[in-house]
Q: What sequence folds into this?
C-alpha cells in the first residue's frame, strides 16, 4: 500500500493554482475521453452507526459512520477524522437514497485529497462543526492558459470575486455548480460549500447524477470527467481511492 499523502501537498497546490474545479452541471459538460481514464476503484461504504430503520436524511452525516471505524481508518490513512466522517457519511446517505449509484467514501476521499488535502490546503482545517477555516478559494477562472474562463455568476457571494468565478471550499465547487446541486449534509438548514459535510454530500450527488452507476468503469469515468475533465486528475483520484481502500 502506498502512503496516501505522499506528494499530495504539491499535487493540491498545482491543481488549485491551475484552476482545477468543477466545470458545470453534467448536462452542460462534454463527454470525457473514456479510453485514457483509469478503471473504477472498488467503491467502499462502511457499516452505518444509525438504527437499521432510521431515515438517513434525518441523521447528520458526521453521525452515520461508527466512531471506532472512523478512528481506525483515520489512523491508517492519515485522513483527518472530521473529513473522513463527511466522506463516509455521504457514501452512507447515498447508499440509502441512491443505492443504484454506489459511490464510495474512498472516491470522495480521493477527490478531497487531490483538491484541497482534505480541507487543509494553505493551513486551513475543519472545525468540530465541519466548517473549513479559513475558506479555501481557488484562482480566478479568467481564461489564462490551462484555465477555463467563467465570468462572475454569483456577484461574488461565494467566492468574493465579482469579475470571475472561483472554486470554493474543500471539494472546490464553482458557484454555478453549487447553485444547482447544493446539499445540507449537517442538517443545520443551510448549504455551505465551506462546510465539509455539505460539500462531501453535494460532491457525491454530483458524481451520481453525472455517472449513474459509478461502480462501473464507464460510469466512474463519466462522473470524474464531469467533475474535472483532466485525465491525469482522474488517475490521481483513482490512485488515492485505491490506496485508501486497501
A:
Amino acid at each position: 500500500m502506498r502512503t496516501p499523502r505522499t506528494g499530495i501537498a504539491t499535487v493540491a497546490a498545482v491543481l488549485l493554482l491551475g484552476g482545477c474545479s468543477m466545470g458545470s452541471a453534467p448536462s452542460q459538460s462534454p463527454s470525457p475521453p473514456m479510453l485514457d481514464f483509469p478503471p473504477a476503484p472498488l467503491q467502499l461504504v462502511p457499516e452505518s452507526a444509525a438504527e437499521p430503520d432510521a431515515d438517513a436524511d434525518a441523521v447528520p452525516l458526521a453521525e452515520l459512520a461508527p466512531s471506532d471505524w472512523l478512528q481506525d481508518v483515520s489512523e491508517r490513512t492519515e485522513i483527518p477524522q472530521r473529513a473522513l466522517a463527511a466522506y463516509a457519511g455521504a457514501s452512507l446517505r447515498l447508499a440509502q437514497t441512491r443505492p443504484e449509484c454506489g459511490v464510495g467514501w474512498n472516491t470522495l476521499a480521493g477527490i478531497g485529497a487531490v483538491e484541497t488535502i482534505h480541507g487543509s490546503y494553505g493551513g486551513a482545517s475543519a472545525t468540530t462543526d465541519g466548517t473549513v477555516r479559513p475558506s479555501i478559494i481557488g484562482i480566478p477562472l479568467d481564461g489564462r492558459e490551462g484555465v477555463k474562463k467563467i465570468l462572475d455568476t454569483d456577484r461574488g457571494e461565494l467566492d468574493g470575486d465579482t469579475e470571475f468565478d472561483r472554486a470554493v471550499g474543500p471539494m472546490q465547487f464553482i458557484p454555478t455548480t453549487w447553485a444547482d446541486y447544493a446539499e445540507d449534509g449537517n442538517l443545520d438548514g443551510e448549504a455551505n460549500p465551506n462546510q465539509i459535510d455539505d460539500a462531501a454530500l453535494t460532491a457525491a450527488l454530483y458524481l451520481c447524477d453525472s455517472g449513474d452507476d459509478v461502480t462501473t468503469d464507464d460510469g466512474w469515468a463519466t462522473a470524474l470527467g464531469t467533475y474535472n475533465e483532466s485525465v491525469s486528475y482522474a488517475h490521481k483520484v483513482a490512485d488515492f481511492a485505491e490506496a485508501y481502500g486497501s
Observations:
- The radius of gyration is 16 Å.
- The chain has one domain: 8-45+59-245.
- Strands lie at 125-126, 132-133.
